[in-house]
Fold this sequence. Notes:
This protein is mainly α. It is built from six helices and no strands. The chain has helices spanning 6-15, 23-32, 39-52, 58-65, 72-87, 89-92. It is globular. 19% of the residues are buried.
Amino acid sequence: MKLVPSLMTRILRDFCHVEWYEVKELRVLIASGDAKFDVELFKKELAECIMSYPAIPVVEINRLSGNEFRTQDEARRWLTEIRRDVLEFETSASDPKRIL
């Protein structure tokens, strides 16, 4: 099974862990242009994790995030929520302060 791409590994570990879930902070970093990573690559890797894999690497996602997903569908729904929470501002607001 294909593993989670390297940038997604960093994002899941640093912003999406169950003990320090900081998706709002991630959203602000991206919206403000202050992200210290390639945002376009993040979008691509997140989309691949959600849609392109024949099988989402649930064990690795659980290891990186501290979650306990039992199925690929649970992990896919969670990743989809992250995409919605982090990236939807692009179509709804240009001011990063509005997203809080």
